[in-house]
Amino acid sequence: MYIDYLLNHPNKIKEVAEMIYKEFVEKTGSNMTYEDVVKYFSNTKRHAFPITVIALENGECLGTVSIFENDLKIRETYKPWLASLYVKPVHRGKGVGQKLVDKTIDIVKELGFRTLYLRTEYASDYYRKRGWTYVETVSDDQHEQIDILKMKCI
Fold this sequence. Notes:
- Helices cover 27% and strands 31% of the residues.
- By secondary structure, the chain is of the alpha+beta class.
- It has a single domain (2-152), classed as Gcn5-related N-acetyltransferase (GNAT) (Aminopeptidase, 3-Layer(aba) Sandwich), CATH 3.40.630.
- Helix 1 (13-25) crosses helix 2.
- It is globular and about 40 Å long.
- The relative contact order is 0.15.
């Protein structure tokens, strides 16, 4: 298995868009369409946000993660953000997610940032056990409680 930039694998854009659309867009009731998500992932970059990487093995996309400049409008001073971490269910528990996160931290360091943030509604314990530090809990525009965590990238 290896991690690479999505922009190097344009044939995987629709697959990544479908994973993210089903997991993070449909479930939130967002107005974004699947086509909007495809367009978004068609424009990810390597040295500027948004950045998306994928885990590949034998040509199969196992999972993905993105880096956004901002993933929470009410906290615009926190930059950048780990976002949309998703591993296909059949590949969970095999370290794919951690390798995606590790690559994200490496990219953020290369770009000169010292801190990486993330938001989560349900997985605070997962991230805390992996070295992330709790920052605060906020309410989003739908009044859902969101934990913000950070990782020092030194």
